[in-house]
Every structure is written in C-alpha cells, then in structure tokens.
Automatic annotation (TrEMBL):
It comes from Prunus persica (Peach). Keywords: Membrane, Transmembrane, Transmembrane helix. Pfam families: PIGBOS1. The chain crosses the membrane at residues 7-28. This is Transmembrane protein.
Length: 54
C-alpha cells in the first residue's frame, strides 16, 4: 500500500498506543472522574439509608 512491509514495526505500534492513551485520558478523563464521584456519592447515600432503615 505505502511501499512498506505488511506488518507495522514494534516502535510504531508502541507510539500509537501511547498517543491513544494520552489523548483518551485528555478527552474522557474529566467526564469520567465526575461520573465516578457521583457514583460513589450515590453508593454512600444508599449505604446510609440501608444502615438507618435496618
């Protein structure tokens, strides 16, 4: 296709993975942190209501 071998070289694959992880954290990090904080607060509230009702 591009005049290269069929397989990608190992350093290129590692570089692509690093770029993917870094950009993924930059894009999805803050919304995911918010989601997990809300989830933990909801679970804590549910545990408190369970403990107080029993």
């Amino acid at each position: 296709m591009f005049g290269r071998s069929r397989f990608l070289s190992f350093p290129m694959v590692i570089g692509a993975v690093v770029i993917g992880v870094v950009s993924g954290k930059a894009i999805f990090g803050p919304p995911l942190d918010e989601y997990w904080k809300k989830k933990q607060q909801e679970e804590a509230a549910a545990k408190e209501t369970d403990a107080s009702s029993s």
